[in-house]
Every structure is written in C-alpha cells, then in structure tokens.
User: Which sequence fits this backbone?
C-alpha cells in the first residue's frame, strides 16, 4: 500500500439520554478523544480537525474551541455548512488531503445537543453554554430558500419531502392507504436494527401495521413516527490517517477501513423545479460514479445504509439504483434517522462509524449515502476492508436542470404534489401545493379552508384541477 493511501483508523459514537446533557463542544471532545484512542493516535498529533455544522449552538470559533480542549494545534481546520451531505464532504476532503501529502491525520467530528436545548426551553431557561458567537452568524445555508417558497411557508423538510412523496405516489398509481401500508413495510425492519443498536435514540421495534396506522400527522401523509427524530443528544467522530502513519501507530490491517470511491451530485435546489417531482435525476449519477471509482457494484455490497430522513429519500434511492426496498441486506446499519436518530447535519458520521465497525468485524464492502437540503444534494460512498479504487472529489458529477418556477399566478392549474401541514396538537393547519401551469412551468400555492384540507387528505389531489388567485405575495388555491 502506498504510504499516502488514506484509511479510516478510528471511530466513536455517543448518545446521551440523561437531561440536561453536555453542550456540543463537550460532546465533540468526548468522541474525538475516543476516536483518537481507537486509532492509537495522541489527540495533539492531529493535523486536521473538521467539524460538521451544529444546529444546537453557534460558537465564536467551533474548531478553535475544540482544538483548545484537545490540546491540539492542527494546521488544517474546517467547519461545514448545513447539510446531511456535510460529513461525507468533510471525510472526502480529509482523504484527499492525506492522499496529496498535505496532512497525515484528520479528525472529522460532529454532534448535536438538541434534546438538551429542548429540555432547557421547556423549563423556561436558556442553555448556559460557553463561547457564544457575538454577533450571531447567519444560519449556515449554502443557499437560502427561494422567495416564492418562503412566501408559501415551504421551507421545512417535513413539507417539501411530503410533497415529493405524494407526487411519487400518484405517479405509481398507489392509493393513499397503499402508500401508508408500503411505508410501514419499508420502515419496520429499520426499527429492529435500531432496537439492537446501543447508540440508537428510539430502541423499540415496531410492526409495519403500527407504523402505517399510528402516530399523529406532521406533514401529511407523514406521521411523527416515520420521520427523522432531530431532538437528540448524539455525537460521532472518525479519524483518518495515511497508511504510513497507521503503520507507525501499529494499527493492524483489520483495523483499517478504506474509502474505495465516492461521488456527489445535485438535483434542483427548488423542489418545484424538479422535472419529475417524485423522482431524482442525480441519485443514479452519484451512485454510478461512486461504484465506478470503487471498481465495485451494488451486488458487491455486504451492507447498506441509505439516508432515511423521510420515506421518499429511501424510495427515490431504491428507484434510481435498482434496489429492492426489502433487500435481504437491509437499508440501514444504524436503524436510520427516524429511529437511530437524526442529529441535524451529522447523521452520516454515525452511519459511517457504524459501517466501519461492521467492516472491521466482517471483511467486505459497504455503501453509505447522504442527502442534503430538500433531496437536493446526494453523496454515495463505498467503504471496504480492502484498499483500492479511486477516491473521487467534491465536484458534482451531475447537476440537474430545472423547469421554470413562477411567483404569482392567476388562473387554472393542475396539482403536481402537495401536503397538509399539521400543528403540534395534530390539527390540520394549511395545505401547501406545487402545481403545473397550462403553458408549462410550475407555481406554489396554499389552501386554507378547512373543507379543502379535509378533502385533500381524503382522496388523491395530484392530477386534479385547481384555481389559483394571488393574495399578497402568495397564491391561494381553491377547487
């Protein structure tokens, strides 16, 4: 093996259930030290420290504060933007730096204390955490929502993903009840994986029938029990090193896991601009490039972890790569974001650490995927107990072109996808629609009448004619 070949040599995960728990920088420190110990690497020896963006707290200098606590002086530092693909982008960057000889070792770490934040909030207290940024920086979007999306209240994933779900449901000719039953069958095996995962947030196995019929709606047709659980206290870290350093540290071959190939691709940033609202153009390109770089195929994978924030993310991935959703290998090694936990941008560090542990115990190959924003960004990474392949880079292998999206529109339209937003009390609050316009292109709309919301949840609305009328900066739909 070439001296500069990068390999993953240290892993750590942490889940805190007692409340209140530690602040994020304490979580980072604990998993960083554990991963470094696993790698046999003194933390002060780290050449690079990279941190996944945390939603829990904005520090004045996230990497600086962690490095200070570790007693490290890394010459390379990075703090990511908000995205479920951020962990893989940082891991890919770290591997590239090692391969080029710029660094010999790199820590990638992330963690959230959103459950603790919630506990303080419910107690009417502010989180007493250290070194707040002053002034507080803007939220870490790579790109903010489109003005038309904001005008129609379409910026939460629980609504954007639900819109894509209804579009896919209608395209396949499924009834509302059939989609819900199928979702239960899709997710029930994941609850069993989570039940056996000591780091999982929800460790109760559920039946398909329970998941299909239980729980309150959040963004219809999604229920609380079938979407990512964000308010968790979790952290994870991985340490990568050059083969030369791993040799010096005495890391055995069985303790090294190799990034055989990875790739990144993008669908449109605006959901309404997707040419086919219920499917992904980018996933197939990302997967094909990652497998090509790895010199392996889907059939060679011994384990899989597909990003699972919402059922549509799993379904689009399975559709695009030709994977049976009930594949005997399963779709997750952790239990997925709804059950193992969905710590904001950090989940892929957990799935990568879990996959690395599996490949250490049982040699083979594994696929780990990531999704960012509203099914916009996609990473596919092939990990292996065997070195080889070609790394890849962050440059997208595909960027989708979108259909035109207009702001205000008056006249007839046809529903392309929709959701009904529900409040914490379970009551339907408003409908959010993406519609096809007669001359081509798309627009957004809201529906507010209680009778229309009830109608939207009782039958398939996709493909049905509606009428839009502008009110202020948004379109209101009636039918």
Assistant:
């Amino acid at each position: 093996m070439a001296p500069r070949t990068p390999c993953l040599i240290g892993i750590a995960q942490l889940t805190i259930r007692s409340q209140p728990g530690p602040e994020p920088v304490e979580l980072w420190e604990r998993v960083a030290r554990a991963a470094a110990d696993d790698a046999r690497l003194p933390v002060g020896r780290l050449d690079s420290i990279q941190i996944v963006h945390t939603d829990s707290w904005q520090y004045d200098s996230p990497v600086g504060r962690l490095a200070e606590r570790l007693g490290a002086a890394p010459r390379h530092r990075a703090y990511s933007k908000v995205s479920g693909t951020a962990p893989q982008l940082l891991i890919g960057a770290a591997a590239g730096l090692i391969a080029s000889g710029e660094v010999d070792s790199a820590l990638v770490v992330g963690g959230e204390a959103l459950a603790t934040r919630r506990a303080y909030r419910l107690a009417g207290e502010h989180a007493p955490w250290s070194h707040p940024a002053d002034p507080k920086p803007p939220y870490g979007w790579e790109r903010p929502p489109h003005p038309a999306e904001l005008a129609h209240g379409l910026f939460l994933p629980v609504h954007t993903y639900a819109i894509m779900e209804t579009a896919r449901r209608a395209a396949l000719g499924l009834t509302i009840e059939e989609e819900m039953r199928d979702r239960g069958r899709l997710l029930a095996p994941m609850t069993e994986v989570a039940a056996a995962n000591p780091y999982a947030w929800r460790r109760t196995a559920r039946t398909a029938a329970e998941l299909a019929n239980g729980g309150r709606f959040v963004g219809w047709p999604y229920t609380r029990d079938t979407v990512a659980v964000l308010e968790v206290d979790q952290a994870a870290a991985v340490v990568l090193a050059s083969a030369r350093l791993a040799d010096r540290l005495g890391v055995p071959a069985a303790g090294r896991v190799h990034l055989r190939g990875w790739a990144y691709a993008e669908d449109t940033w605006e959901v309404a601009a997707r040419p086919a609202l219920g499917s992904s153009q980018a996933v197939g390109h990302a997967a094909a490039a990652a497998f090509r770089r790895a010199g392996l195929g889907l059939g060679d994978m011994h384990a899989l972890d597909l990003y699972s924030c919402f059922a549509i993310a799993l379904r689009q991935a399975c559709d695009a790569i030709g994977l049976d959703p009930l594949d005997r290998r399963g779709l997750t090694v952790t239990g997925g974001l709804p059950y193992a936990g969905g710590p904001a941008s950090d989940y892929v560090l957990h799935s990568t650490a879990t996959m690395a542990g599996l490949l250490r115990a049982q040699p083979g190959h594994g696929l780990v995927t990531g999704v960012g924003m509203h099914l916009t960004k996609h990473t596919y990474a092939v990990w292996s107990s065997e070195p080889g392949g070609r790394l890849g880079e962050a440059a997208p292998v595909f960027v989708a072109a979108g259909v035109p999206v207009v702001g205000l529109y008056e006249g007839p339209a046809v529903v392309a996808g929709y959701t009904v937003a529900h409040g914490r009390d379970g009551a339907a609050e408003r409908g959010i629609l993406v519609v096809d316009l007669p001359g081509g292109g798309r627009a957004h709309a809201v529906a507010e009448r209680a009778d229309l919301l009830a109608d939207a949840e009782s039958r398939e609305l996709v493909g049905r004619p509606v009428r839009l009328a502008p009110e202020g900066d948004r379109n209101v739909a009636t039918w």
Q: What stands out?
A: The radius of gyration is 22 Å. The chain has a mean pLDDT of 97.
